[in-house]
Protein: Aquaporin-like protein
Organism: Neolentinus lepideus HHB14362 ss-1
Amino acid sequence: IHEDCSAAFIEFIGTTFFLLGFCGIQALMGDTSSNVEHVLHIALCIEFSLIIIVWLFYRVTGSLFSPNVSLTLLLVGVISPVRFAPYCIAQLAGAIAVSVLVLVLTPGPLSATTCLQTGVNKAQCIFIEEFITSGLVLAVLMLAAKYQVTPFAPVSRYEIYSHLT
């Protein structure tokens, strides 16, 4: 249990640093001049944040950073329930910590807010979110099934099975 709690603490730190990409979004949103730049800026801030933090943390915790990924790996038997519970708590606590940091470190109202477009109802939004999340966890499972060890393993999470079991 001590090892699982230590890994969960490191998962908290990794999740917090990953989600700090929102500070980049918030700090620079006023500089975009078109909708395409706006969307590209958001995507690049989050994806560069993810790729760097996964690269740093994957050997220690597997760089899950999402309760959805943790649940998937629990269901397929990669992580135990004893590791799953603290991981989820750590990931949610990391998200809360980043929310506070973004509010404290950046001025004004949030620039990257989520709202439904006209004509999209809540049921459609939930389906879209579930579909996208399914794609994420499927990608993790498909890439994690490979046992290759390369310098680029954290980018594609090749080593997730070997480090979590």
Observations:
- The domain at 1-113 is CATH 1.20.1080.10 (Glycerol uptake facilitator protein).
- Confidence is low (pLDDT under 50) at residues 157-165.
- The helical segments are 2-19, 21-28, 35-61, 67-75, 81-105, 122-144, 153-156, 160-164.
